[in-house]
Amino acid sequence: MRRYSPKDNVQKKPYYTDRYYVAPQVPKLDVESDEEFASDLAAIESKFTVSESYIQLDQLVVYIDIADNLGVLELLRDERAYTQLSELSAIDWLAKDGKFEIFYQLLSMSRRKRIRIKAYIDEAQPVKSVQSLWRSADWSEREMYDMFGIKLINHPFPKRILMPDDWEGFPLRKSYPLQGDEAASWYEVDKIFGKEHRETIGAELRDCAKVDRYDTERFSRLGFEVPKGADISGGEKRKKVQYQEDGGVFLIDRFDEEKTVIIRDKDR
Amino acid sequence: MAQHQVDYTKDGGLPIALTSVDKLINWGRSNSLWPLTYGLACCGIELMASGASRYDFDRFGTIFRASPRQAEVLIVAGTLTKKHAEFIRRLYDQMTEPKWVISMGSCANTGGMFNTYATVQGVDRVIPVDLYLPGCAPRPETLQYAVMMLQQKIRRESANKAQKKKRLL
Question: Which of A73, A161, B26, B108 has the fewest C-beta atoms under 10 angstroms from its C-beta?
């Protein structure tokens, strides 16, 4: 939960004043400041190695070795009453130090406490699945594989969950372009028509507000109409504006541009 | 032949109607457009509203069908994801000729605000489109107008000849 800050005097005192304001880090408290968390940490440390631990926003954060993930989580579930796995995913730090950070967010309903178990893994390092402890981990781990490409050990159905099975690349990695890589941009064309038809259909038009003055396939200019696909790079002749078919319409006068008057007096 | 002289142009006394087969068939086609129930995203809500009692598509003979084999209009109402692209193509192929496609809303037209890796940038990359309907999401009145425009288009087509194939490839 994000800490609430009162906003009722917001008009008197705007909270964005400095344009280059850098938000301070959320303070990290010592684990000893909370008795219950201290006993949780002691229980983990008695059996496993803990590299770092602190309390942030009333939640205990513990960094462990990834090889111990199943053991630590089982201990927390069975002995420390953290009965729910609320969330499980990864953070991409590949650009910074070539590692993924995996986190398991746990909740104890009886003790009203939340704890986050974190661990670093290398890019291609597989992780032991925790779906034997919580069924909810099944889909979360599949999503983690789908989005980051983190492989799982002992997962019952290690398949992509959101993207199609034949998708290339892992979209939530920081290195993945937002508008998709080469395979992604041609995905539907390759799948439905085949790679040989890429030229017929053409590349994706990413700027949907784009107007090309010389493209007569898709665009036309009022008063300068030319046949579809005509080459107008040499300039086209102005045509009379015509609002009616050549044959005319019964009882309706034809618009004649010559007879029109443009009224410049705006007060008339 | 009538024994007596009949003035066929007199009001109420018209025993026959003269028309062409084209017009007759197109009259039937344009007034019984059966679209596929195919709401992909939020435009689907407007599609449902158009079908429901307030806007009442039944007045146009537009009755939503749940099977592509009974439908002749595909209203693509919403965002088409790349994962779903093959299925829209399959549904389109399953529809019986003659068939028409209305691309409803910004997402279906161009990908809209979803300028991302997972969205098809316009359904016309996958299926041929007859009518593009702007809006995000278009109101039911706009969809009604689109259906009326499609009716106009159908009435202009020739009915007795084989339809020109509308294929991307």
Answer: A161
Q: What is the pLDDT of residue A7?
A: 63
Mean pLDDT, chain A, whole residue set: 87
Written as one letter, the residue type at A265 is D
Question: How many Å apart are CA A248 and CA A237, to the nearest integer?
Answer: 24
Identify which of B124, B97, B164 has the alpha carbon closest to the alpha carbon of residue A202.
Answer: B124
Which chain B residues touch A171 with a CB distance below 8 Å?
Answer: 117-118
> Are A179 and B115 an interchain contact pair (Cβ–Cβ within 8 Å)?
yes
pTM of the predicted protein model: 0.73
The overall longest dimension of chain B from CA atoms, in Å, is 76
Instruction: Tell me, yes or no, if A149 comes closer than 8 A to chain B by beta carbon.
Output: no
User: Chain B residue with minimal CA distance to A167?
Assistant: B83
Beta partners for A106?
A85, A115
Set of chain A residues whose Cβ sits within 8 Å of the Cβ of B110: 205, 208
Q: A167: closest CA among A141, A194, A153, A149?
A: A149
Residue B4 CB-density burial (10 A; 0-12 exposed, 13-18 middle, 19+ buried): exposed
Shortest CA distance from B82: residue in chain A:
A188
Full set of structural domains in chain A with CATH: 25-125 (3.30.460.80), 177-224 (no CATH)
- Token pair belonging to A137: 């981990």
Confidence of residue B70 (pLDDT cuts 50, 70, 90): very high
* Torsion sign across C-alpha atoms A116, A118, A123, A126: negative
Q: Residue B80 has what pLDDT?
A: 94
- The lowest-confidence range among A19-23, A30-34, A75-79, A97-101 is A19-23
* Rg from Cα positions in chain A: 32
How confident is the model over A38-57, as pLDDT tens digits?
A: 999 999 999 999 999 999 99
Tokens describing residue B125 = 């990359």
Q: What is the greatest pairwise CA distance in chain A? A: 98
Between A266 and B18, whose confidence is greater? A266
Packing angle of the helix pair B43-51, B140-156 (nearest 10 deg): 70
> Which tens digits make up the pLDDT trace of B49-62?
999 999 999 988 89
Q: Which residues on chain B place their C-beta less than 8 Å from a C-beta of chain A?
A: 82-83, 85-86, 89, 106, 109-112, 115-118, 120-122, 125-126, 168-169
Given B110, B118, B125, which is nearest A208 (Cβ)? B110
Tell me the count of A-B CB pairs closer than 8 A: 61
Nearest residue on chain A to B127, alpha-carbon basis = A192
